[in-house]
């Protein structure tokens, strides 16, 4: 996939003699802290999936920030939380594995909410890491608060670091939606990367397989449709994406076959809706997003299937890609 890489305020030319740096950063934080939105703002396109529902990021989506002097690969992890199901445990494992592999960690804390047990849980885990990876405290959603509230949050985060023995490399407020300080954050992260050549070709935004991104777009639309009824019971698998045969070159069509899995037969009615209206809306909305992502007209064939209690069943989890 290609796109302009100027989102994070790319500088025109690298300084002569400046070594090229490349490496990985990840954002951690409790659900809804703004990690995906920040990743998107840094990269400048919709790669990670955002929604106002917590815990929507299941897959490790990488966004890539290209600079003349550096390449910053962003790994977007699911929110770390106290596990209640097997899925929860797997997600936490993913987070810890990610932490041990990156060059710099950004701990996202929303400016508009007081530090809570969720933040302390994650900060405690960060403090306990054996590897001394540099840690940034990123105060997200700075646009939502007045400057005195923001200042109080900066102090609280500084204090939290002192209490737990974390030495923040920086404490930086950002607003991903307003683009405020997003470029500066990239500037500050880059010096923490090791010297090395670019890891990905210029222009790449993510190496997430397209099918996974398409599945995430469908799941996002499906979640919006059912609001509070089925928060974490939906999984989507794209079975096949094939160009339709016998189409004129100037009018291509991509056939996308996807299954939307729910946990119980009783949830079918909620997803499908009266006279199939909800499922139709999910199809229409996600098709638009898929077309925008892939740049081609799409025919979306979407089926609802029951995968009994998939969140608790290791075999089902593997089949659904976890
Ligand atoms: N006003 C404002 N809202 C933001 C900002 N960043 C994120 N949000 C909103 O906060 C909500 C959560 O953002 P996400 O980026 O999905 O949060 P996340 O941390 O990736 O969430 P999980 O995937 O659940 O871990 C969304 O409704 C965003 O629109 C910001 O800078 N300003």
UniProtKB/TrEMBL annotation:
Function: An essential GTPase that binds both GDP and GTP, with rapid nucleotide exchange. Plays a role in 16S rRNA processing and 30S ribosomal subunit biogenesis and possibly also in cell cycle regulation and energy metabolism.
Annotated region (G1), positions in chain: 29-36
Subunit comment: Monomer.
Annotated GTP binding sites: 29-36, 76-80, 140-143
Region named G5: 174-176
Chain positions covered by the region annotation G4: 140-143
Database matches in InterPro entries: G_ERA_dom, GTP-bd, GTPase_Era-like, KH_dom-like_a/b, KH_dom_type_2, KH_sf_prok-type, P-loop_NTPase, Small_GTP-bd
Organism field: Streptomyces iconiensis
Name under which the protein is recorded: GTPase Era
UniProt subcellular location: Cytoplasm; Cell membrane
Domain Era-type G: from-to ranges: 21-195
Domain of life where this protein originates: Bacteria
Coiled-coil regions listed in the entry: none
Gene: era
Mode of membrane association: Peripheral membrane protein
Entry similarity comment: Belongs to the TRAFAC class TrmE-Era-EngA-EngB-Septin-like GTPase superfamily. Era GTPase family.
Keyword terms: Cell membrane, Cytoplasm, GTP-binding, Membrane, Nucleotide-binding, Ribosome biogenesis, RNA-binding, rRNA-binding
Ranges for region G3: 76-79
Region G2, residue ranges: 55-59
Keyword Transit peptide listed: no
Pfam families in the record: KH_2, MMR_HSR1
Principal location listed in the UniProt entry: cytoplasm
Classification via SUPFAM superfamilies: P-loop containing nucleoside triphosphate hydrolases, Prokaryotic type KH domain (KH-domain type II)
């Amino acid at each position: 996939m290609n796109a302009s890489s100027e989102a994070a305020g790319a500088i025109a030319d690298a300084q002569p003699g400046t070594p090229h740096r490349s490496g990985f950063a990840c954002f951690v934080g409790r659900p809804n802290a703004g990690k995906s939105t920040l990743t998107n703002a840094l990269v400048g396109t919709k790669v990670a999936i955002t929604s106002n529902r917590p815990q929507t990021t299941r897959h490790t989506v990488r966004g890539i920030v290209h600079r003349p002097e550096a390449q910053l690969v962003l790994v977007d992890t699911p929110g770390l939380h106290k596990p209640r199901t097997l899925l929860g445990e797997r997600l936490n494992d993913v987070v810890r594995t990610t932490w041990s592999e990156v060059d710099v960690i950004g701990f996202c804390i929303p400016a508009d909410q007081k530090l809570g047990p969720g933040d302390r849980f994650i900060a405690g885990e960060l403090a306990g890491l054996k590897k001394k990876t540099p840690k940034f405290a990123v105060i997200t959603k700075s646009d939502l608060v007045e400057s005195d509230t923001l200042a109080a949050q900066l102090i609280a985060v500084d204090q939290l670091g002192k209490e737990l023995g974390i030495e923040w490399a920086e404490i930086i407020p950002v607003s991903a939606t307003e683009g405020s300080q997003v470029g500066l954050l990239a500037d500050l992260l880059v010096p923490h990367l090791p010297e090395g050549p670019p890891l990905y070709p210029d222009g790449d935004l993510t190496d997430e397989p397209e099918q996974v991104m398409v599945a995430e777009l469908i799941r996002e639309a499906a979640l919006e449709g059912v609001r509070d009824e089925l928060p974490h019971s939906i999984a989507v698998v794209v079975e096949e994406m094939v160009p339709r045969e016998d189409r004129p070159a100037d009018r291509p069509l991509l056939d996308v076959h996807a299954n939307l899995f729910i946990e119980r037969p009783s949830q079918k009615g909620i997803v499908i809706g009266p006279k199939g209206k909800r499922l139709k809306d999910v199809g229409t909305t996600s098709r638009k997003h898929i077309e925008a992502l892939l740049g081609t007209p799409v025919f979306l064939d979407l089926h609802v299937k029951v995968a009994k209690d998939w969140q608790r069943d290791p075999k089902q989890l593997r089949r659904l890609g976890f």
